[in-house]
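Entry 14. Structure prediction run on the chain below.
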Amino acid sequence: MGRRRRRRRKYSYTDGATASDTIIAFVIAGMCLSVEVVGYIASIITKGNVPEIFGTLYLCAIILSVTGMLFGIFGHRAQEGGVSAKRMAIILNLVGFVVPIVTYISGLI
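Output returned:
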C-alpha cells in the first residue's frame, strides 16, 4: 500500500499577482508626491522664496504623473492583479497631476 500524500493548502489573504505596470505606477506616484511635499515644506520654510529649481521639479512631477497614469492604464488592461490596486495607482497619479496645477493657479508656489 502506498502512502497517502497530503496536499497542503496555502492560505493567502491578498492577491498573489499584481501587474508590473501597476507597481511602476505606484512608484512613480510616490516619487511625484514626494517631490511635491518637499516643495511645500521648502516653500513654508523659506516663506515663499524658493529657488527656481522647484519650478522645474514641479514640471517634472507633472510629467511623471502623466507617465504614471499611462502605466496605470496599461496595468488596468492586464489580466493579473486586483482592480482596486490598479484604480488606486491611477487616482494617486491623478492627484499628483492636479495638485501642482492647483497650487500654481492659486499662487501658493
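Helices lie at 20-45, 53-77, 83-106.
Filed with the rest of this week's runs.
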